[in-house]
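Deviations from the work plan: none for this task. Representative record:
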Amino acid sequence: KQEVTQIPAALSVPEGENLVLNCSFTDSAIYNLQWFRQDPGKGLTSLLLIQSSQREQTSGRLNASLDKSSGRSTLYIAASQPGDSATYLCAVRDGANNLFFGTGTRLTVIP
Amino acid sequence: EAGVAQSPRYKIIEKRQSVAFWCNPISGHATLYWYQQILGQGPKLLIQFQNNGVVDDSQLPKDRFSAERLKGVDSTLKIQPAKLEDSAVYLCASRPAAGTNTEAFFGQGTRLTVV
């Protein structure tokens, strides 16, 4: 069964810093990997989708990488802002169309 | 484009009562998911529909949980009877048909508190 782990569980950084969030998964037979943002009391907002054949995706200040063979993905956030404070979740999609989520990294950006 | 709609946003019930949640996916999305997210954890899949058929309900506690998507559009998730440990956020998500390498889109969720 696919297991997804995210490290660290929580992270606090001063505004303006660059940061990296990590995601690892046990079964490399994935269809794609998706990074989400979740604000308190809200649903999930999709940030980036990386296909299994891709190595990275970029959107604005966000860059996600994927190393499928080693079961790892990173989300890089450049020049962090207080508005980036949220929980970040990664999810892998398997061939059965199911999404398996990590437990998330709670990010706090301090003004 | 309208997003995934869920209702109610919040629900408080006593244990052993029944509750139902409703989800309206993005128009044209064939695949619909229900997830349970307990506080401090990632979402856990309960059930996946493809149109009006169940694809995967292996994680659904079928003794108390049921879900349907009769016309392949809206879906309801029911808990009967509820237990304290069912307190969680219930998230609905949809995506275009299976086999397409597309994003899943999530609703705002229904926060259930069982007291």
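Chain A has no helices and eleven strands.
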